[in-house]
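Inverse folding, one chain.
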């Protein structure tokens, strides 16, 4: 195997590893979304929204 062939194969492996990592991250995100929906766990946006609503209701009580 020539150095050029080796470099080409290594680049191909690196590209495939990158594609696999991206696919794994998508799969991980989908599984987390499914679990969150199944167990009704709030995500970060819902937690932030609940915090904002708590501040609003606290402000209304003190007004």
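Residues assigned per position:
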């Amino acid at each position: 195997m020539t150095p050029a062939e080796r470099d080409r194969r290594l680049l191909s492996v690196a590209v495939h590893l990158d594609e696999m990592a991206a696919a794994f991250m998508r799969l991980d995100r989908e599984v987390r979304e499914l679990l969150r929906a199944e167990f009704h766990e709030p995500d970060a946006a819902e937690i932030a929204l609940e915090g904002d609503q708590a501040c609003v209701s606290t402000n209304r009580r003190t007004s």
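The chain has two helices and no strands. The mean pLDDT is 85.
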